[in-house]
Design a protein that fits this description.
The chain has 3 helices and 9 strands. With about 180 residues, the chain is of the alpha+beta class. Strands 5, 6, 7, 8 and 9 form a 5-stranded antiparallel β-sheet that branches. Strands 1-2 form a two-stranded antiparallel ribbon. Strands 3-4 form a two-stranded antiparallel ribbon. Strand 3 (about 45-50) and strand 4 form a beta hairpin.
């Protein structure tokens, strides 16, 4: 949905910026109403050619008199709008996809680690394999975390233990509801 809104926004902005280039004005709108007894005045849809100084339509690609190629004029308002669009797109492109999702995954992993570590035989030897951890999200505020902990047992041997940790988001804090040892 966000990508669709961004695309529509960009299309609208480009339409505004390049509207001047493709704007066709009916003849009755070319002149302003003049005061009684004066000749009608042309609206400002005419610019002077930089080379020959003749009046040329703002929509013309080239001067009809000297054939100088004319670049489209962009107003200050259009330039400001374009800069804001570029800024918006830049921020949107450079942000990480699903920043809140990554935060939630890390927070749920931390909750599991903090719950498991004090319950180990030797908590200081715990090495959590978070690189290979899997986080499933069956519901938005509920996650199942599968992770492996390498820690020393009673015989001082380093043993991997696999856990399934069920966590829930309660008021913005991930808390462990249940934990189970798994085969793998």
């Amino acid at each position: 949905m966000g990508l669709l809104l961004l695309a529509v926004f960009i299309i609208v902005v480009f339409f505004i910026i390049f509207k001047q280039r493709n704007n066709l004005i009916p003849d009755e709108n070319l002149y302003t109403t003049a005061e009684l007894g004066t000749a009608p005045k042309l609206k400002s849809k005419v610019i002077n050619c930089p080379r020959c100084d003749n009046g040329v339509s703002k929509n013309a690609d080239e001067c009809p008199f000297c054939k100088l190629e004319l670049k489209p004029q962009i107003s200050k308002t259009q330039a400001v709008v374009f800069c804001f669009v570029l800024l918006f797109v830049g921020i949107w492109v450079t942000r990480s996809p699903g920043d809140s999702q990554y935060y939630d995954q890390n927070a749920s992993l931390d909750a599991c680690e903090n719950y498991i570590k004090p319950r180990l035989k030797n908590p200081s030897s715990a090495d959590f394999d978070t690189a290979n951890a899997k986080v499933l999200e069956p519901k938005p505020d509920f996650k199942t975390v599968f992770l492996t902990v390498h820690a020393t047992n009673s015989f001082n041997a380093i043993v991997p233990t696999h856990y399934a940790c069920f966590v829930r988001n309660v008021s913005g804090k991930w808390t462990v509801e249940e934990i189970q040892e798994t085969a793998q």
